[in-house]
Structure formats: structure tokens, C-alpha cells
């Protein structure tokens, strides 16, 4: 349960104070009467205001009313934080008796035109306004946990610095792609990939392989071809292959499905140029490749080995001893430098040579997969 304190003298970072309640990561922490000495990246907002004594140092925070010395004002703003749904006190039918008032919890995610996490639908939604608290926190605070796109600066408030931080309009040259996930029959796996992609802000539509000819791919930025398409006779339908090819969209092929499609397209990263195994890791070829830092930085260990799955089957493309100029390699098998399960050709087709769903991915695997999707959509 929540912890409630009437007076506090601790340090508070990325908290939201609304109507004398404090919330961090969506959870009430305490009621607030006086505070100090430090509040950083906080939002203090409500009709009653917040009295903070002269000992307090409040910086990079959004405050409705605050009384403290002028020399303590560093990076603060005074503006409507634009909460998704502010909490409030319910008088419980007795407006003249505050003792039986009930606190109605709100949603303290910040509104954003770029995207705000909605815990009810578990998806990113776009608002028609953007909170002034986005990208307004202490420039020295760690913002790397925020979902991209972000402005390279932490948000104020309860969700600043974590995955549910509202997105920034300052996207630079890269944008979140709209993804078409083409699959055959496995609705469960399709849903798992769709959930992972949507959680990172990538709008995703699952499309049956047999329906590809009936649906325009023009509105999508990237196509994923699922593992289970290898079992579908339609995979060998030249019309379907042609539809994917002439779309001109970058394609990420998963496991055997991608391997088969790339073979039908006559690519060197498709059938029959690979070997099958059960590898769950890669050894990074070039630690400086932007794939491992865009948009999410991945820590490359000294041995350059990244475990992407708990267990999975895999396909590695054999490229030894010469790698063609049209091919970019990102990761080889840990014990065999000649086979590459993470490889790209013509800067348009990328093979993610693993067969299992996100449910068996490690956290590093999920992060790298998201990088693959966003990076490929923007770089291809």
C-alpha cells in the first residue's frame, strides 16, 4: 500500500504533487504540508497550492504556488502541467466536513501530441496539446530510460526518466514507423509482436499473408515477415512476393519466414545460403554501429556477446571469407564467425534470424529488436 506522511524533509526527484498528494510512477507516496530541502524535476500543482519553507531548494520543477527565497529558483516554471486526468478530492456529499473526503486517483501522464502512455488501453495515444513539463527537467538528470522519441532531456513529474514518460515532438531526423506485420496463422505470436512494438510507440497492423494482395502497403513504413509464413503455400505465390517487393518498403524477415522470402527474392541473405541451429546470442561485429545505439543505447560487454533469447532456433547466413559490398553484418554466431543471424542486404532487407516470439526475448533482445525496426525504417 501507499505510504502517507504529513510532514517530510527528504529529497524528492520526479514526483508529482497534486492537491497535496504526491505520486511517483503512478503511486501515491504521501500527503504534503511542508517539505525540504530538495525537490528536483517535480510537479507541484493544485488549487490549494504548496507551501514550502525557506529551507527548501526546488529546481527544474513546475509549481502552482511556492513561497521560498528567490535565490532557490533554478529552472522552475509556472504553467498548467496538462495531466491526462488530474486527481481530486470528493466531498462524499458533505462539502462542509473535510474529515470524510475521499481522494479520487487520477492519471498523471503528461499530455503530448507526440504520444502519451494510456494505462487503460496500454497503448500510446496522441493529444491535441503538449505539456510544458516535457523535456523541461534538470539537463543533468538521466533521461535514457524514456521511450523514444524524446528530446534528450528528462521530463518533469512522476514518469520522467522511465518507459512511460510522455514523448517529445523533438524527434530530430528520425520518426516512429508504421509497421505491417505479415503472418500466416499464429495469432498469439502476432499479438505478442504487436504488443511489443506498440509499447514502444510503433503503430502496428497484423495482416494475413493471404490478404496481402488485397491491402495497400503504401501507408506503411516497414514490413515484418513473420516466422510462420514459411509453412504457407501462399509464400511461394509470385504475386504476393511481387507485392512485397514492389512496395519498396524496407523488410525485416523473422526466422525461417524471412529466410524463405529473401530466397525467393534472390537475395544472398535468404535460402539456401544459411545454416540452421539453436543459437540464442550474437557476437557484435562492430560495437560502433549505430544499430546498437539508435534510438536506444545498448551496453556492449567486453566480449561483445549479447544474449537475445532465453532459448530459440536460429538461422545464420554463411558469409566466409568474403562479405559482399551489398551486405552489412551486425552480429555473427558466438562460436562461428562465418555465420551471421543478424544481417542486412541492399540497406532494405534485414534478416532477424531467430524464430521465437518476444515472450522468450531477453530485455536486451527486446531493445535490440526495437532498434532494428526503427533504425531500418529510417535508414533504409
Strand content: 25-35%
H/E series, N to C?
A: EEEEEEEEEEEEEEEHEEHEHEEEEEEEEH
| Average pLDDT taken over every residue | 85
Question: In total, how many beta strands?
Answer: 26
Distance between the termini: 48 Å
Strand count, sense and closure of the main sheet? 9 strands, mixed
Query: Uncertain regions: pLDDT < 50 for 5+ in a row?
Result: 1-10, 26-36
Strand order of the largest sheet: 16-15-17-18-26-25-23-20-21
Q: Which word captures the global form?
A: elongated
What's the helical proportion of residues?
10-25%
Structural class: alpha/beta
Rg on CA atoms, Å: 25 Å
Number of helices: 4
Topology:
Elements (H helix, E strand, L loop, with lengths): L10 E3 L2 E3 L2 E4 L2 E5 L6 E3 L2 E3 L11 E3 L2 E2 L19 E3 L2 E3 L11 E3 L2 E4 L5 E3 L4 E3 L53 E5 L3 H13 L4 E5 L13 E4 L12 H9 L4 E4 H10 L9 E4 L3 E4 L20 E3 L6 E5 L8 E6 L6 E2 L1 E4 L3 E4 L10 H17 L1
Parallel strand pairs: 1-5, 2-6, 5-7, 6-8, 15-16, 15-17, 17-18, 18-26
Antiparallel strand pairs: 2-3, 3-4, 9-12, 10-11, 13-14, 19-22, 20-21, 20-23, 22-24, 23-25, 25-26
Please explain how this structure is put together.
The protein has four helices and 26 strands. A nine-stranded mixed beta sheet has the order 16-15-17-18-26-25-23-20-21. It has a five-stranded mixed beta sheet with strand order 4-3-2-6-8, with no helix packed on it. The model is unreliable at 1-10 and 26-36 (pLDDT under 50). The chain has helices spanning 187-199, 238-246, 255-264, 363-379, and strands at 11-13, 16-18, 21-24, 27-31, 38-40, 43-45, 57-59, 62-63, 83-85, 88-90, 102-104, 107-110, 116-118, 123-125, 179-183, 204-208, 222-225, 251-254, 274-277, 281-284, 305-307, 314-318, 327-332, 339-340, 342-345, 349-352. The protein has 380 residues and is of the alpha/beta class.
